[in-house]
Specification:
Distance between the termini of chain A: 30 Å
Strand content of chain A: 15-25%
Helix content of chain A: 40-55%
Shape of chain A: elongated
Low-confidence stretches of chain A: none
Number of strands of chain A: 11
Strand order of the largest sheet of chain A: 2-1-3-4-5
Largest sheet of chain A: 5 strands, parallel
Order of helices and strands of chain A: EHEHEHEHEHHEEEEHHHEE
Oligomer: homodimer
CATH architecture of the largest domain in chain A: 3-Layer(aba) Sandwich
CATH topology of the largest domain in chain A: Rossmann fold
Number of helices of chain A: 9
DNA sequence: TTAATTTGTAATAAATCTGTAACAAATTAA
DNA sequence: TTAATTTGTTACAGATTTATTACAAATTAA
């Protein structure tokens, strides 16, 4: 486990408990005891997940949550709310305001950990694992390996990045411009037709013996992973 | 809302309640009352989310969940577990086995809906937005795909844009001029009769086997989606 | 260094899409 | 009813888009 977790919580004893245990699990942890500081520090820390107390001295957890969801830079930050209230009404409010999960105090650390893993697994699998998958295709970022049907296949560096990009959003159609922007190093100028050639190379590599085509051409729009 | 939700649950009364309400919300719902059938049907249905009962006649929810997580094709299917047991131990087991959330019976439909939305919003934002529908016709901008009765149909780029335009305002009649303005790239000059030909092409594509005509001709005014 | 691999481009082939014209069919007006 | 208007349908040539190949330059490894 290697993600960064930020905690906004006004009870130091809880911070201490959670931080200590999360660090033992391999997370990098930072925290703040009030909402305004938290929102500021959050930006610098760039966590993969936020643990957010419902009741804070200055802002409410819901306020913070909404603030985050409306602020483009951390729009999609997964949030787990810690709450002392137990009523269903509040729970729903929390979930609808964009919270990913909530936990009622007092909670056991194990329960918290399980939820963190579940949310991260769903939201940001690369934090939990560094392998991207789609059907029988697997890409390991860490080892820089690609497999089809568990058989390793060789792809060049550009094809690797290209596949990595497609795997980050399977089924979504990307235009050649979007592909250029995301797969090629910044400010490099390549002919947009060049992409076709790399697509061809990638296809050639990943379509081993009679496996189905995984890259879809969408005429006048671009390409997608099926 | 337009995602597909699959339910594996052995109590017909719950299925009925949930299915009915989810359909009212715009979801496409299918279900199964036991684990083995469920696992099979799941693959055909390709849902965006699974509601899974903890206790089933044949397999346990946990078994099913693990099976899904280990099976490459639906590895990342979001799962919400429905459980009658309330002990924390079980909850953790569920979450660690890859469940995204769980709900303890009895639950209110609103609570369920809130959770479904929360999970989908995080996991599969394109399901929650980005798709246009009218009756049994569906267009996904994200994937650039068109479906009639859940069967994918192929349309050319211009027909896609044309359909996208009609879907943005079903039932409204558009004149050929309006269609030209909105569907064709700016400053391009095409004969207005050309639209008739594209309408014909679009009709041909979306009217698969005996489905009813969806594009209405309004003589001397234009066309509309029924 | 040399050899091997990777990369971008250009050229050409192949596939698909597009607009128009021509005629048929349907509808409305006289 | 006939004539006029509007829409449906088809075929086709030209245009556009994508696939494929070959090759030279650049990069990397040995």
């Amino acid at each position: 486990m290697n993600g960064k977790i930020f905690i906004i919580e006004d009870e130091p004893s809880i911070i201490q408990l959670v931080q200590h245990n999360l660090e033992k699990e391999g997370f990098l942890v930072a925290s703040s005891t009030n909402g305004n500081d938290g929102l500021k520090d959050l930006k610098k820390f760039e966590p993969n997940l936020l643990l957010l107390d419902w009741m804070l001295p200055d802002l409410s957890g819901i306020d913070i949550c909404k603030n985050i969801r409306n602020n483009s830079s951390h729009k999609n930050l997964p949030i787990i709310m810690l709450t002392a209230k137990g009523e269903e009404e509040d729970k729903i409010k929390g979930l609808d305001s964009g919270v990913d999960d909530y936990l009622t105090k007092p909670f056991s650390f194990n329960e918290l950990l399980a939820r963190i893993k579940a949310v991260l697994r769903r939201y940001d699998p690369k934090v939990v694992s560094n392998s991207l998958e789609f059907e029988d295709l697997k890409l390991n970022r860490f080892e820089k390996r690609v497999f089809r049907k568990n058989i390793e296949i060789q792809v060049g560096p550009t094809e690797f990045r290209l596949l990595e990009f497609f795997l980050s959003n399977p089924k979504r159609v990307y235009s050649r411009d979007q592909i250029l922007e995301n797969v090629w190093p910044n400010n490099i100028n390549v002919e947009s037709r060049t992409i076709d050639v790399h697509i061809r190379r990638l296809r050639k590599s990943i379509n081993i013996d009679k496996t189905k085509e995984l890259i879809r051409t969408v005429r006048s729009s671009g390409y997608s992973l099926i």
